[in-house]
Design brief:
single chain, 2 strands, 76% helix, Lipoprot_YkyA-like
Length: 217
C-alpha cells in the first residue's frame, strides 16, 4: 500500500505571482489552478494510509480467526468483534476518501473553463495542464471502481464472520464458500488497486512536468 502515500501534491507548494489579464481580471497560472484543484488529495492520501493500516491489522485478525476456527472449542467472539470494528472504520475512511475525490471531480469542469480563458500562458503549457486534468479524471474513475470493489470485499468479510459467530455447529460448507468468495473479491480489489497506483504515478509525472514548464516560462 505504500504507493497510496505518493500524493499528487508534490507541487502544491509552488508559489507563482498572480498575473492580470488585459481587461484587469486576475488570472492564476495553470499549475496553480491545477494544484489548488487537487489539494484534497493530501487529505485523501492520509485516509488511504489509515485504510491500509486497518486492512493490515484486520488481515492479521483474519489469519488468527481461521487458525483458531479449526479448533471447535475455540472462542472466536473477541477476535470477530475486533475484526468487525476494523471493517466499520474502513468503511468510514473509504467514504471520506470517496467524498474528497468527488468534490475534486465536481470542480474540474470549472478549472478546465478557466484554463481555456487564460491569456498569458503558452499553448504548450495549457495543453499540458489539460493533459494533467485528463489523467486525474481517468484516475478518479478507477478510484470509483476501487471504492465499489472495496465495499464488496468488506461485505464478503462480514458474511464470513457472521457465519463463524455464535454457532455451536458451524456450517463448514458455507464457511468454505464464503472464504473462497472473500478471496476472489480481494484478488479483484488488488488488480484495481494496482491500476490506480499506476495511474497515480503517471499523473504525478505529468503534473511535475506542468510545474517545470510553468517555472521555465
Amino acid at each position: 500500500m505504500r504507493t497510496w502515500k505518493k500524493s499528487a501534491l508534490a507541487a502544491v507548494g509552488l508559489t507563482l505571482a498572480v498575473l492580470t489579464s488585459a481587461c484587469g481580471q486576475p488570472q492564476e497560472p495553470a499549475a496553480n489552478q491545477v494544484n489548488e484543484l487537487i489539494r484534497n488529495d493530501q487529505e485523501m492520501a492520509q485516509n488511504l494510509k489509515e485504510l491500509a493500516r486497518h486492512e493490515r491489522e484486520e488481515m492479521e485478525l483474519y489469519t488468527s480467526i481461521l487458525n483458531k476456527g479449526k479448533n471447535k472449542n475455540s472462542d472466536l467472539e473477541s477476535l470477530l468483534d475486533q475484526a468487525e470494528e476494523h471493517i466499520a472504520e474502513r468503511r468510514k475512511l473509504l467514504e471520506q476518501a470517496e467524498t474528497l475525490m468527488n468534490q475534486t471531480r465536481e470542480q474540474t469542469p470549472a478549472v478546465r473553463d478557466s484554463l481555456g480563458r487564460l491569456t498569458f500562458e503558452k499553448e504548450e503549457t495549457l495543453t499540458q495542464a489539460q493533459t494533467v486534468l485528463d489523467q486525474y479524471e481517468v484516475r478518479a474513475q478507477t478510484f470509483e471502481e476501487f471504492v465499489t470493489s472495496y465495499q464488496q470485499s468488506l461485505d464478503a468479510d462480514e458474511r464470513l464472520y457472521s457465519l463463524m459467530r455464535g454457532s455451536v455447529e458451524p456450517n463448514l460448507v458455507k464457511i468454505k464458500r464464503a472464504i473462497r468468495e472473500r478471496n476472489i473479491q480481494y484478488a479483484q480489489l488488488a488488480e484495481i488497486r494496482k491500476q490506480f497506483n499506476k495511474q497515480t504515478k503517471a499523473f504525478n509525472v505529468a503534473n511535475a512536468r506542468l510545474v517545470q514548464m510553468e517555472r521555465a516560462s
